[in-house]
Amino acid sequence: MEKQELRSGFTTGTCAAAAAKAAAAMLLTGNPLLHMKLVTPKGTEADLPLFHVVLEKDQATCAVQKDAGDDPDVTDKAMIFARVQYFDGDEAEAKKTCYCNCGEQEESSFLFLTAGEGIGWVTKPGLSCPIGLPAINPVPRTMIFQGVEEARREAGFEGPLMITVSMPEGKKLAEKTFNSKLGIVGGLSILGTTGIVNPMSEEALTATIRLELHMKAVAGERKVILTPGNYGEAFIKETLSLSMSEGVTCSNFIGESFLMASEDRFKDILFVGHIGKLIKVAGGVYNTHSKHGDRRMEILWGCASDVIQTSEDLKQQILSANTTEEAAKILEDHNILEPVMTEVVHRIKKQVTEWSGGIHVEVVTFSTTYGILGMSEGAKDLIETFTKRNDDRE
Predict the structure, then answer these.
(1) No. of H helices and E strands in the chain?
(2) What are the UniProt keywords, alphabetically (predicted)?
(3) Torsion, Cα of 147, 150, 152, 157 (10° steps)
(4) Residue 247, SS3?
(5) Cβ distance 139 to 200 under 8 Å?
(6) CA dihedral in degrees (210, 212, 216, 218; nearest 10)?
């Protein structure tokens, strides 16, 4: 019997954006809605039913139920609410605790975005949201503002609006996550980069990786780019100016992907990834999923202690960092970021070369704050090779 194809779902960011757009449309037109359509950053159209619709004179509220598809997501089936109301308060004060967007026209009034019940607030550095503001990540913020701005434009309204996103179950669900350790208190984060949740069946993912590598090999390809996920894909396209048609996304199955590449007799691999994922590889972690443990700071400290004079104070700063972005800032403040990243890249290259049975591998690791953090010695030449191949094909 053939196995049923796994079903994708939508991120909390997509749900929040749909609810916010719907609430704004209802408030500004006075017409209740049953569902809301929007296009995700990946280009997929979402048509989401609305629940708990309340339309009042000065505000409108509705909810979208999170559907994670076949992904075992902690937020699956949770209701994500958005309330949109006319804003007549102090804009300067609102900016202190809200995200704000002035809209598409310079003369447009601000849109404000804040968090209600069950959405966490950021209390520590190193995350993609500023301290003191809600844990609503950049892509979902953009989606929410775009949706509400579209509703505002269609209604011909230019006044300021306040958007409040909430998730009543969020605080309880957050207990099942690492949010408190990361410095997100009071609830969950609104997340997403593509707007789509892809199922995380290990068997399905590894089969897809194997198939993609094998198809390239059968087509005569002997060079390939490997990257763990969305951050790496975006970096490859936007910073390295390379095409992901040359690449394969390996998710957390990094060791296994290099083994697969060796089985298909690839000769050259460009391995690109965010430091938060690749630092685990430097420590020999074969599968980088968090369920297998998190030794990122311990591994980073091990790299640092091998190449610089260390102190107990610096050790504690690194080990106490919540994210690798925060740790990179600490290293930068001590003027040791470059030598430590050189050692990190050396260890990554040594490890993946071993996993692949001796394939020629070059490594690039980056952070969202600093861009490229480290490159192996031959990475530029291999990047140029891929660039030339892209140019020749155009």
Answers:
(1) 14, 17
(2) Cobalamin biosynthesis, Methyltransferase, S-adenosyl-L-methionine, Transferase
(3) 160
(4) strand
(5) no
(6) 60
> Of all helices (H) and strands (E), which one includes residue 383?
helix 379-393
Partners of 163 in beta bridges: 84, 113
The amino acid that residue 72 corresponds to is P
Cα distance between residue 78 and residue 173, in whole Å: 9
Give domain 9-196's CATH architecture. Answer: 2-Layer Sandwich (3.30)
Q: Is 246 helix (H, G, I), strand (E, B) or coil?
A: helix
Q: In angstroms, rounded to a whole number, what is the distance separating the alpha carbons of residues 186 and 273?
A: 31
Within its chain, how far is the Cα of 94 from the centroid?
27
CA distances, 189 to each of 114, 155, 183, 249, 320 (Å): 12, 30, 11, 25, 21
Structure tokens at 3: 């196995």
φ and ψ at residue 359, rounded to 5 degrees: -60, 145
- Each of the 394 residues of the chain gets a pLDDT tens digit; together they read 344 566 788 999 999 999 999 999 999 999 999 999 999 998 989 999 999 999 999 999 999 999 887 666 788 899 999 999 999 988 889 989 999 986 444 444 789 999 999 999 999 877 789 999 999 999 999 999 999 999 999 999 999 999 999 999 999 999 988 788 778 999 999 988 888 877 655 776 787 789 889 888 988 999 999 999 889 999 999 999 999 989 999 999 999 999 999 999 999 999 999 999 999 999 999 999 877 778 999 999 999 999 988 899 999 999 999 999 999 999 999 999 999 999 999 999 999 999 999 999 999 999 999 999 999 999 999 999 999 987 776 6
* Six token digits for residue 229: 């996920």
What type of residue sits at position 227? Answer: T
In the chain, list all ranges with CATH 3.30.2110.10. 9-196
Beta partners for 197?
A: 9
Distance of CA 384 to the CA centre of its chain: 27
The whole model's pTM is what?
A: 0.63
Residue 228: name the closest of 211, 196, 253 by CA: 253
Q: In angstroms, how far is CA 87 from the centroid of its own chain?
A: 31
The Cα 162–Cα 268 span in angstroms is 52
What is the 8-class DSSP label of residue 108? S
Residues 379, 375: Cα–Cα separation, whole Å: 6
DSSP one-letter code for 4: P
Alpha helices in 85-182 (DSSP H): 91-97, 138-155, 170-174, 179-182
